[in-house]
Design a protein that fits this description.
The protein is mostly helical. The protein has one domain. It has 2 helices and no strands. The longest helix has 46 residues. It is rod-shaped and about 80 Å long. The two termini are 22 Å apart.
Length: 102
């Protein structure tokens, strides 16, 4: 496999990992904002309760979305590191070949 192909594959993989990181962080932000909104609604309901004995619990949020997004973020981090290493290796091999041919 030519070194140029390895370099291009590494760059493409890194770009895909960057896009995956952006998607995961956006999902984490959406889930966090949604969770904060639900918490505020629960507090308002608590204040509007007819008597102090009536406990209003917050609606069950979907922590799985945050957990899944965090896992995806970590996976994309590993993908970015792996592709960075392949770019670095291709660069070193190319440098070695240039040194040998000169």
């Amino acid at each position: 496999m030519p070194i140029g192909d390895v370099l291009n594959n590494g760059i493409e993989g890194y770009n895909r990992a960057s896009q995956g990181i952006e998607r995961a962080t956006a999902e984490i932000n959406r889930a966090t904002i949604s969770e904060q909104d639900e918490s505020q609604l629960a507090q308002q309901r608590q204040l509007q309760a007819a008597s102090p004995d009536e406990a209003v619990t917050a609606p069950v949020s979907q922590p799985a979305k945050i957990d899944e997004a965090l896992v995806n973020l970590k996976v994309e981090e590993f993908n970015a590191k792996a592709n960075t290493q392949s770019i670095r290796t291709a660069d070193e091999v190319l440098g070695t070949l240039v040194d040998i041919s000169v």
